[in-house]
Amino acid sequence: xxxxxxxxxxxxxxxVAACALVGQSRATAHRRAKxxxxxxxxxxxxxxxxxxxxxxxAARVLDVLTSPRFAEASVAQTWATxxxxxxxxxxxxxxxxxxxxxxxxxxxxxxxxxxxxARPELTATGPxxxxxxxxxxxxxxxxxxxxxxxxxxxIYSRYVVGWTIxxxxxxAIASAMIEQATATHGAPNAVHADRGTSMTSKPVAxxxxxxxxxxxxxxxxxxxxxxxxxxxxxxxKYAPDFPPRFGSLADAKAHCETFFGYYxxxxxxxxxxxxxxxxxxxxxxxxxxxxxxATLDAAYAAHPDRFARPPTPPTLPKVAWINQPAVPAxxxxxxxxHST
Length: 340
Known about the structure:
Blueprint: H1 2-13, H2 15-22, H3 26-33, H4 55-65, H5 75-84, H6 92-101, E1 122-124, E2 130-139, E3 146-154, E4 160-166, H7 171-185, E5 190-193, H8 202-211, E6 214-217, H9 227-237, H10 249-265, H11 277-281, H12 285-302, E7 320-322
Helix pairs in contact: 1-2, 7-8
């Protein structure tokens, strides 16, 4: 009704006054007077500029850019060299556009290629088989002062088999830590680490070779290849009593002695069925799990209504991996051959 009244008053007083008298929005009246066409607007065709290169000229430019002389030169170098020789073919932007259209854009120089690093795959079915180690920085009393904490951990039991702290990172310190750990706990089958300077150093490599231990390294920039050491450092630094800074090297050493004693013998680790690393490492975890099962059975017998099902203690993992190896296909996995 209002729009009809606006249409009737518009020839006499104009649209603005008509909308004001009727109380109608001017935008609504305008949309009705000039409705928007349905569907997308027709795309206007752009005429080719008169200065556009001909097909022959474009082919010549592309031949020059891909010639042996300029195949490895940048567009800017090619354009400037030709200009110094008194030749102007086209602008640099046109050269780039022609190369993109020909699928030859981007860096045109030979690029160094590196063979892919092998994915480390280690398996431990019990303690003493695979160790992992790393170094982390602890903040000292002043800005720029750090202490290096070396930690060697058994990936199956999560038991810290060796650690040391020093004012610097040194391959000799790392080698001495590994040697002492093997003298105490025996030599493992493999020792894994990332690609830090100490981890790939000759003293460490020579020690592992002398002990008959296989050395393993993470791929460059792949932190997931060393998950046990990374997770252990997070547990250390996220502990409630971990200080923002240590007053001295002796202060840091005292804190680590307390922490590693707690971690090995008191900390119930979620990754090993909520047992302590020492219990798994020294083989008492199964007995403790039986005691837990007996306690839960007694609780269920006393109050079965409080449980949805008979409770069981967490299971102890049977294997630990650094990058779980791919399981090879067996005869059962492959379809049987049909004889004709």
